[in-house]
């Protein structure tokens, strides 16, 4: 009988090479599939969170309340009228108004969250259907000294039979985004507050009543976490695009910006500020015609809501115009050339065309954008991009004045 033959060493090596290559291909396909699945799940979660936050704020804006009258208040008496005994009191502040500003919480201890600017916006909305609300329906049904303001903190801790002050068909609403975790200073929590009746010393329309973390957490409730950016850009009726306005503007000039003071009497940094006497004069009040809602969220990872898309490869100084990251390809996916990234609490603008895929260096960056401040950042600091979304909302607008002017 002929002797049985086995495999030669060359044949074994070729077989092992073929099976290794097939195994690597299978692993790569499985890894690619898992990556697509994880990314799709992450994007779906992000979209669900956006669909929860933005439409709610849009609905609040769409019922923005305007002052019922734009007639100027009576002028103060003349010298002769005062000598004749005429009495005059200054008009009360306009109750239906819109405020938007940047606040810096005063109670933040020294550390990475100290002196961080936070976006704040508040306005009065129409709740003429308050009879359908179980709590607001009882507002004004009782009389006596035990009536309370309708605020989340009071409503949640009181018994169901608590009596609230009449709403008058109006409610204050405010939003403020603040950093809360010193370990992740880039992340914000969006708080929502509401209160009725409108006005008074504790009004949400006065940002000084919400200038500490403690007051915000007490008077408002969180509606979204894991936020990189939240803001509202207001556009006046005279503006034809969303180009931000710099400096002061005139009565009939366009304005686009994140600040708004409808009374023109409270915020001296507002481009249309007039004087403190305008607080009780509704005839010179102005309201925006458009609002652009902006939000940027991060998606969940295996480590939770905390880590960025990449990290810094080297320290960045206050005035550096270039940064180096460890994984630059994570900042160059499909999309526009002009983009934003966030390191700690600072937003930085960059261009995809300026990203060096080999060294990870990004040149010509713009520092301190989106109402944030330039700062130094240590090596290995998280770099965030997140998922950005915008929504333009058409508003009721009274952007003209009763004092001798005509509707534009």
Radius of gyration: 28 Å
* Secondary structure: number of strands: 16
| Parts with pLDDT < 50 across at least 5 consecutive residues | 402-408
What is the chain-wise order of helices and strands? HHEEHEEHEEEEEEEEEEEE
Helical run tally = 4
In percent, how helical is the residue content?
10-25%
Main beta sheet strand tally, sense and closure = 9 strands, antiparallel
What does this structure look like?
It is a single chain. By secondary structure, the chain is α+β, with helices and mostly antiparallel strands. Among the domains are: 27-70 and 93-124 and 175-191 and 222-301 and 394-403, no CATH class; 309-384. Helix content is 18%, strand content 23%. It is built from 4 helices and 16 strands. The strands form 3 sheets. Strands 1, 2, 3, 4, 5, 6, 7, 8 and 16 form a 9-stranded antiparallel β-sheet that branches. The longest helix has 54 residues, at 9-62. The chain is elongated. The model is unreliable at 402-408 (pLDDT under 50).
Q: Can you lay out the helices and strands and say which pair or pack?
A:
Blueprint: H1 9-62, H2 79-83, E1 98-103, E2 118-126, H3 152-157, E3 170-178, E4 188-195, H4 213-219, E5 221-235, E6 256-257, E7 260-261, E8 290-297, E9 310-311, E10 322-324, E11 338-343, E12 346-351, E13 361-363, E14 366-369, E15 382-384, E16 387-394
Antiparallel strand pairs: 1-2, 1-7, 2-3, 3-4, 4-5, 5-6, 5-8, 8-16, 9-15, 10-13, 11-12, 11-15, 12-14
């Amino acid at each position: 009988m002929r002797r049985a033959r086995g495999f030669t060493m060359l044949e074994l090596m070729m077989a092992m090479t073929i099976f290794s290559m097939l195994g690597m291909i299978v692993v790569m396909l499985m890894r690619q599939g898992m990556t697509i699945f994880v990314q799709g799940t992450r994007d779906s979660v992000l979209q669900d969170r956006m669909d929860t936050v933005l439409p709610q704020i849009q609905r609040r804006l769409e019922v923005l309340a305007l002052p019922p009258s734009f007639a100027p208040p009576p002028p103060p008496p003349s010298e002769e009228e005062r000598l004749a005994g005429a009495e005059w009191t200054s008009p009360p502040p306009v109750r239906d108004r819109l405020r938007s500003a940047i606040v810096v919480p005063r109670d933040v201890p020294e550390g990475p969250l100290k002196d961080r600017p936070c976006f704040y916006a508040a306005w009065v909305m129409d709740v003429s259907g308050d009879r359908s609300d179980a709590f607001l329906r009882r507002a004004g049904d009782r009389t006596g000294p035990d009536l309370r303001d309708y605020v989340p903190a009071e409503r949640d801790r009181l018994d169901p039979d608590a009596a609230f002050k009449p709403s008058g068909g109006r409610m204050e609403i405010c939003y403020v985004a603040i950093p809360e975790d010193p370990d992740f200073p880039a992340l914000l929590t969006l708080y929502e507050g509401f209160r009725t009746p409108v006005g008074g010393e504790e009004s949400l329309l006065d940002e000084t009543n919400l200038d500490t973390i403690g007051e915000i957490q007490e008077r408002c409730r969180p509606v979204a976490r894991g936020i990189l950016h939240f803001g509202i850009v207001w556009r006046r009726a005279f503006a034809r695009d969303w180009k931000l306005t710099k400096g002061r503007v005139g009565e009939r000039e366009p304005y686009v910006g994140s600040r708004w003071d409808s009374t023109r009497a409270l915020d001296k940094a507002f481009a249309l500020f007039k004087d403190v006497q305008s607080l009780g004069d509704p005839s010179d009040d102005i309201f925006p015609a458009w609002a652009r809602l902006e939000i940027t969220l991060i998606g969940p990872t295996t480590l939770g809501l905390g880590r960025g898309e990449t990290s810094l490869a080297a320290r960045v100084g206050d005035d550096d115009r270039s940064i180096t990251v460890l994984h630059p390809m994570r900042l160059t996916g499909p999309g526009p050339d002009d983009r934003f990234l966030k390191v700690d609490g600072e937003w930085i603008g960059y261009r995809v065309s300026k990203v060096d895929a080999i060294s990870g260096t990004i040149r010509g960056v713009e520092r301190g954008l989106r109402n944030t401040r330039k700062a130094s950042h240590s090596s290995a600091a998280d770099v965030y991009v997140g998922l950005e979304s915008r929504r333009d909302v058409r508003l009721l607008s009274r952007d003209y004045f009763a004092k001798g002017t005509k509707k534009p």
